[in-house]
Design brief:
With 233 residues, the chain is of the alpha+beta class. The protein has 2 domains: 73 residues, 3-Layer(aba) Sandwich (Glutaredoxin), CATH 3.40.30; 148 residues, Glutathione S-transferase Yfyf (Class Pi), Chain A, domain 2. It contains 9 helices and 4 strands; from the N terminus they run βαβββαααααααα. Strands 2-1-3-4 form a 4-stranded mixed β-sheet, covered by helices on one side. α1 runs parallel beside α2, α3 crosses α5 and α3 packs parallel to α7. The mean pLDDT is 96.
Length: 233
Amino acid sequence: MIRLYQFEPAFGLPNASPFCMKVETYLRMAGLPFETVDGADVLKAPKRKLPYIDDDGRIVADSSFIIEHLKASHGDRLDGHLTPEERAISLAFQRLLEENSYWVAVYWRWADEANWPATREAFFGKMPAPLRWFVPALARRGVLAQLRGHGMGRHSAEDITAIGRRDVDAVADFLGEKAFMLGDRPTTLDATAYAFLANLLWAPPDSPVQRHARTRPTLEAYCQRMKIRYYGS
């Protein structure tokens, strides 16, 4: 049995972490039996980050390494039909969402003062006292340092908004009227796209990027299709 260690569900989503939600969505898409361990202790995670899995004693951390492990161990159930060009496109959009759009979301969730309380509650609200009195501030300080180290945190709010809008438009324009990111059949890319887009569209923070995404109706329709197909409602 595969055990997925992740944060608690929040904001009405399977997870407020798009990386945790990505892995759970992939497991559902691939039809692999699994159970979740919600509210896992991030300090006990192999890389001090969630998610990670225990696959019959094999511990694997990092969402991309997890999925590669699952493909190698249980078969590639989603991407076997893809051409080399489609695999390249899939990787490029995964990188756009995880290495660029993600940091836009981090800025609005963790750096913006108006949105920080909702983020603090989602990730630390169930933490026992006295940890919840000081851990959120320490975690926030670390995240903001990572944001600046990445480079996104060195930009103004206006520049970060412009970056996020361009990413949203790139995804929406590529999706077009297709059912899934690469056509009529769902692929691994959809696990990533759904996790990141649902967190953008349906969860705090309120931001100019979120409001822009809501002007692209195909993204909302896409997320609804994925939700109904893999989560049942």
